[in-house]
TrEMBL record:
Substrate binds at S13, H14, N15, A16, G17, K18, S75, F163, G164, Y165, D166, K186, H199, R200. The gene is rdgB. The active site is at D74 (proton acceptor). This is dITP/XTP pyrophosphatase. Its EC number is 3.6.1.66. GO terms for biological process: nucleotide metabolic process; purine nucleoside triphosphate catabolic process. It is an enzyme of class 3 (hydrolase). Homodimer. One of its GO terms (molecular function) is nucleotide binding. It comes from Endobacterium cereale. One of its GO terms (cellular component) is cytosol.
Amino acid sequence: MRKLETRTIVVASHNAGKIREIADLIGPFGFSAKSAAELKFQEPDETGTTFEENAAIKALASAKASGLPALSDDSGLVIDALDGAPGVYTANWTEREDGSRDFPWAMQKVETALQDKGATTADKRTARFVSVLCLAWPDGHTEMFRGEVEGTIAWPPRGADGFGYDPIFQPQGFDTTFGEMTAEEKHGWKPGDAEALSHRARAFKIFVETCLEA
């Protein structure tokens, strides 16, 4: 495993919500970071069929464009009753014909698909959020970190915090959705803590243990 020897990195994302969450996680470690959006890097085509492949595509594009290490995230909602959909195509499910992203519409699409499958009780609505972080260097070296959190799909959506599909995801062991949690509650982890709640925080914890800690 290669250690990260600089605290200057690029967050390889154009997603405002994702950039904010990653910034919240890396902040305590003293990182100086700019996003691919701020640097006006072109978004690469995500042609992979796994979270790992797409994370690598994004991180490598920003690392090579900037000459700095780049940290990307590819994440999605995996629903058992829908045979793993939307999965790596989670963002695609939000796209309208004009190219805009509409998360309320996408959440309704998820619910309609579950209803069509007869998945009306919690035991038939199991799901997980998956996050794969990729740290890439300009020379092409990559390190991968995967985090998952189990839960169920709630309906109707609840909460205005978080972003994306958070209002319909209720993590296992909780009565609230990610959309009803503060950032601190959702991540459930900070340096020195043993546990992490969100998929992204769990992946980030592995990143810290692998690439930052001596």
